[in-house]
């Protein structure tokens, strides 16, 4: 891939946001017809969350295969770049460590992935309590984990994948607590028999995890410790007990990242970007692929990415070839959502003293006294900090039933000079292009 | 349902309505206050929460300085989350002309027993190291303060509520008349005195009053404790703020207790769309950067807009207006000083309702004063 000259503005026919499996697959597919593509990614290295660069194990082999199909001279990869605004039609502003970069495009593919869902419980803000993917990312980034005792809890297939990874790099995974009921998981397990490849993966995972207890209907009641987490209190049915640990990784499945889609006015329903059969969003010339359109795992992300890449490059037959496989994978995705949906009992975990908004240190009790999210935000500043409700918003939605607000520029915190450039590019545009209230 | 009867019905749960409700109920009146949305979510939430003594006119000085006194009396009972902080106002002078203004302001304030301190360029840069070099000096008004207004509005409403005031939240008034109000849900409330305290919405309920919407933009940064120490305002602000007919921006930044920096300000007439306007935002941020170049590297976490309720002579409308079948009462038109003057407004309004003697002359704020278009300032 080509080195980018910093500070340059970038002109592209096809621009892809996100260099995870969906984004990179889209790039490969698009290059069958298009002469070049631009890929914008938040991280230093491409790969997204699942293929995150690993200081211990090096580059993921699947990632290497894809990257080998992306010739440097035809792919303009802009790394460490966060898209914060869309000042005009066909224009984006990305913030990089070297300043703001304006990007223009004809067709856009949003492959912005997903993030972990956190639900508060007493002690969740203690040191060494992390997300599940979060702990894996820390280890890949160099955190020494060998011989450390780790409890993994929450929900989703990620729990198993991360447990296997951590075990492999020498950590002592004490147990895995999955909140989903056993009957849902049995149904999910049976569905794997309809897909031999997935069944194979599952069996491999099972082998890798031998010796690690996997408890269902089991969830954390609290994390406890003085300076950092020392033990986790777990509950399964009527049984409550505690487990000693050095790290506690906990997250409740995944949530699509919707900020950019929302900023671009793309239709969003049920917490995911709405796309048609061809991965087209409600906005002309904007496609979306991967977890942003609904959490569905690696295979679906790759298929959606390829379809979006083909469509954006005018290769309809290429895209149509993949529809059936994509639809099958999507059915599996919906099953994932059903299987790992949070049970109502999780709402009872936080006490009134439990912090919900970590940016502004807002406890649940001080939210309960308000009638609406707007009133609660104004009075308590919940969701008003640097993350602008990205973490606490979903928790508040589950705990109190309040819907999150619309996204305003900057979609994510941005340097003042980036905002100035954004405003400059938006000048002369209808104000609605800048801010869709 | 056809409702209860009150002594006073206050429409609007912003900080002005909230302060009026508390003052009225404390004076023994039976009070109802209505808010169509969320308490303190309009201009109260959109503004900066700067508590400032102003010197544009004697009347403005009287109301702001009396209000500052009331704020000092209230301060000890405010919750910590109200973030009341006596951070002082520092008026920044860029050139000799603006330093002449510093001299004029100084004598104005000193002759009226307001503490001030003139800063030379070195003292200015010691007080605020992130200001650009080459500025001419400044005037520090150390007793001015900053507050987080939505929490204060809620606090005042809750106190009024505790003292017996009835709160109707989430109900929109469709019409008011001298003896009560009609709500969109068909209910009515009757009262001896009906107060329109709906800020920039007030002409909607009382047509013909000289209140115009004046739009403003604001931006807030992530936390940078110590980056700014005082509320900083350029003295060019005075010239700009009085450019009644055209858009303007001014360097106006505020330190929040959280370490965040609030960046303002812009003024526009004739715009009803709350959308953020790129040219205004750019102009405002550029003005801020002109005075504080280091702002460019700070992270902005949010931008928003709000509407001030402006009058032709920059003084609020406090008191009765004669309408067809009686009198309606107004507590509106506070423009950019509504947080500061909310407490003084409440006192003046209730004094008039009860026929009490006020601490300051009430006539300059009577809604039926002749509102001249010529705005003069020295």
Topology:
The complex is a heterodimer of chains A (437) and B (378).
Chain A: E1 10-17, H1 21-30, E2 37-40, H2 61-68, E3 75-78, E4 82-88, E5 91-96, E6 99-110, E7 114-116, E8 129-130, H3 132-140, E9 149-155, H4 158-168, E10 172-178, H5 182-191, H6 196-208, E11 214-215, E12 218-224, E13 231-236, E14 239-244, E15 247-252, E16 254-256, H7 259-263, E17 268-269, E18 272-273, E19 286-288, H8 297-312, H9 316-320, H10 323-340, E20 355-357, E21 362-363, H11 364-368, H12 373-380, H13 392-400, E22 414-415, H14 416-426, H15 431-434
Parallel strand pairs in A: 1-2, 1-6, 2-3, 6-19, 8-15, 9-10, 9-15, 10-11
Antiparallel strand pairs in A: 4-5, 5-6, 7-16, 12-13, 13-14, 17-18, 20-21
Chain B: E1 2-11, H1 15-26, E2 31-35, H2 43-46, E3 50-51, H3 58-75, E4 89-93, H4 96-110, E5 117-119, H5 121-127, E6 137-141, E7 145-146, H6 149-162, E8 166-169, E9 173-177, E10 180-183, E11 188-196, H7 202-205, E12 212-223, E13 231-234, H8 236-241, E14 248-255, E15 260-269, H9 278-291, E16 299-310, E17 317-323, E18 326-332, H10 338-354
Parallel strand pairs in B: 1-2, 1-11, 2-8, 4-13, 11-18
Antiparallel strand pairs in B: 3-7, 4-6, 5-6, 9-10, 10-11, 12-15, 12-16, 13-14, 14-15, 17-18
Produce a short descriptive summary.
The complex is a heterodimer of chains A (437) and B (378). With 437 residues, chain A is an alpha/beta fold. Chain A has helices spanning 21-30, 61-68, 132-140, 158-168, 182-191, 196-208, 259-263, 297-312, 316-320, 323-340, 364-368, 373-380, 392-400, 416-426, 431-434; strands at 10-17, 37-40, 75-78, 82-88, 91-96, 99-110, 114-116, 129-130, 149-155, 172-178, 214-215, 218-224, 231-236, 239-244, 247-252, 254-256, 268-269, 272-273, 286-288, 355-357, 362-363, 414-415.
Tell me about this structure.
- The complex is a heterodimer of chains A (437) and B (378).
- Chain A has 437 residues and is α/β, with parallel strands linked by helices.
- Chain A has helices spanning 21-30, 61-68, 132-140, 158-168, 182-191, 196-208, 259-263, 297-312, 316-320, 323-340, 364-368, 373-380, 392-400, 416-426, 431-434, and strands at residues 10-17, 37-40, 75-78, 82-88, 91-96, 99-110, 114-116, 129-130, 149-155, 172-178, 214-215, 218-224, 231-236, 239-244, 247-252, 254-256, 268-269, 272-273, 286-288, 355-357, 362-363, 414-415.
- Chain A contains 15 helices and 22 strands.
- In chain A, the strands form six sheets. In chain A, strands 1, 2, 3, 4, 5, 6 and 19 form a seven-stranded mixed sheet that branches.
- In chain A, helix 3 (132-140) packs parallel to helix 4 (158-168), helix 5 (182-191) runs antiparallel to helix 10 and helix 8 crosses helix 10 (323-340).
- Chain A is globular and about 60 Å long.
- Chain B has 378 residues and is of the alpha/beta class.
- Chain B has two domains: 2-48 and 149-210 and 314-365, FAD/NAD(P)-binding domain, CATH 3.50.50; 89-142 and 212-308, 2-Layer Sandwich (D-Amino Acid Oxidase, Chain A, domain 2).
- Chain B has ten helices and 18 strands.
- Mean pLDDT of chain B is 93; it is low at 372-378.
- Chain A binds chain B through residues 87, 360, 371-372, 374-375, 378-380, 384-386, 388, 408-410, 413-417, 419-420, 422-424, 426-427, 429, 431-432, 434-437, and chain B through 37-41, 45, 81, 150-151, 154, 169-170, 219, 221-223, 258, 273-279, 281-282, 285-286, 289, 295-304.
């Amino acid at each position: 891939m080509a080195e980018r000259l910093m500070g340059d503005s970038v002109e592209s026919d096809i621009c892809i946001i996100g260099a995870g499996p969906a984004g990179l697959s889209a790039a490969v597919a698009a290059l069958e017809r298009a002469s070049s593509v631009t890929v914008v990614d938040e991280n230093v290295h491409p790969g997204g969350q699942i293929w995150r660069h690993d200081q211990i194990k090096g580059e993921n082999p699947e990632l290497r295969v894809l990257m080998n199909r992306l010739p440097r001279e035809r792919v303009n990869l802009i790394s460490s770049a966060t898209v914060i605004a869309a000042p005009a039609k066909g224009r984006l502003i990305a913030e990089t460590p070297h300043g703001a970069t304006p990007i223009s495009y004809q067709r856009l593919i949003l492959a912005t992935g997903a993030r972990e869902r956190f639900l508060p419980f007493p002690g969740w803000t203690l040191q060494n309590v992390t997300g599940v993917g979060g702990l894996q990312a820390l280890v890949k980034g160099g955190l020494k984990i060998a011989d450390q005792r780790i409890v993994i809890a929450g929900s989703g297939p990620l729990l198993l994948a991360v447990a296997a990874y951590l075990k492999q790099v020498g950590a002592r995974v004490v147990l895995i607590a999955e909140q989903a009921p056993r009957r849902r998981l049995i149904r999910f397990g049976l569905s794997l028999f309809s897909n031999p490849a997935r069944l194979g993966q599952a069996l491999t995972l099972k082998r890798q995890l031998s010796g690690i207890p996997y408890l269902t209907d089991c969830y954390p009641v609290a994390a406890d410790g003085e300076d950092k987490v020392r033990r986790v209190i777990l509950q399964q049915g009527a049984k409550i007990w505690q487990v000693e640990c050095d790290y506690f990784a906990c997250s409740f499945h995944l949530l699509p990242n919707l900020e950019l889609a929302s900023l671009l006015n793309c239709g969003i329903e049920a917490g995911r970007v709405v796309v048609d059969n061809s991965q087209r969003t409600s906005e002309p010339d904007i496609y979306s692929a991967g977890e942003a359109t609904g959490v569905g795992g690696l295979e679906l992300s790759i298929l959606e990415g390829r379809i979006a890449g083909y469509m954006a490059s005018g290769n309809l037959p290429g895209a149509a070839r993949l529809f059936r496989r994509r639809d099958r994978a999507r059915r599996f995705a919906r099953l994932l959502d059903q299987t790992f949906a949070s049970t109502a009992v999780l709402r009872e975990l936080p006490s009134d003293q439990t912090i919900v908004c970590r940016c502004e240190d807002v406890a649940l009790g001080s939210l309960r006294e308000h009638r609406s999210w707007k009133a609660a935000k104004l009075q308590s500043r919940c969701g008003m900090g640097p993350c602008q409700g990205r973490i606490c918003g979903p928790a508040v939605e589950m705990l109190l039933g309040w819907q999150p607000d619309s996204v305003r520029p900057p979609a994510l915190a941005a340097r003042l000079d980036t905002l100035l450039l954004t405003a400059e590019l938006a000048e002369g545009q209808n104000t609605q292009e800048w801010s869709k209230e | 349902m056809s409702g209860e009867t009150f002594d006073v019905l206050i429409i609007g749960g912003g900080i002005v309505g909230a302060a009026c409700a508390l003052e009225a109920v404390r004076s023994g009146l039976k009070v109802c206050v209505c808010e169509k949305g969320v308490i303190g979510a309009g201009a109260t939430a959109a503004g900066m929460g700067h508590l400032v003594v102003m010197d544009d006119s004697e009347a403005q000085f009287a109301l702001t300085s009396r209000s500052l006194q009331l704020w000092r009396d209230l301060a000890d009972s405010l919750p910590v989350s109200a973030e009341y902080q006596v951070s002082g106002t520092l008026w920044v002078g860029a050139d000799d002309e603006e330093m002449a203004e510093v001299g004029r302001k100084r004598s104005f304030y000193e002759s009226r027993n307001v503490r001030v301190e003139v800063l030379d360029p070195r003292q200015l840069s010691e007080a605020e190291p992130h200001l650009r070099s080459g500025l001419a000096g400044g005037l520090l008004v150390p007793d001015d303060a900053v507050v987080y207004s939505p929490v204060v509005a809620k606090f005042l409403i809750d106190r009024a509520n505790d003292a017996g005031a009835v709160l109707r939240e989430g109900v929109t008034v469709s019409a008011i008349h001298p003896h009560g109000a009609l709500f969109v849900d068909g209910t009515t409330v009757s009262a001896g005195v009906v107060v329109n305290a709906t800020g920039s919405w007030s002409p909607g309920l009382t047509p013909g009053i000289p209140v115009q919407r004046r739009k403003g933009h604001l931006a807030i940064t992530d936390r940078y404790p110590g980056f700014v120490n005082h509320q900083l305002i350029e003295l060019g602000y005075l010239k700009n703020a009085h450019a009644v007919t055209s858009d303007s921006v001014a360097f106006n930044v505020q330190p929040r207790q959280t370490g965040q920096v609030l960046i303002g300000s812009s003024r526009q007439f004739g715009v009803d769309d709350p959308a953020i306007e790129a040219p205004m935002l750019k102009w405002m941020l550029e003005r801020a950067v002109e005075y504080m170049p280091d702002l460019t590297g700070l992270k902005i976490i949010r931008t928003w807009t709000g509407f001030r309720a402006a009058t032709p002579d920059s003084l609020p409308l406090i008191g009765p207006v004669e309408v067809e079948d009686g009198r309606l009462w107004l507590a509106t038109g506070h423009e950019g000083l509504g947080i500061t003057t909310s407490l003084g407004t409440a006192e003046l309004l209730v004094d008039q309702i009860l026929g009490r003697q006020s601490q300051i002359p009430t006539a300059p704020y009577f809604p039926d004063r002749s509102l001249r278009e010529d705005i003069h300032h020295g």
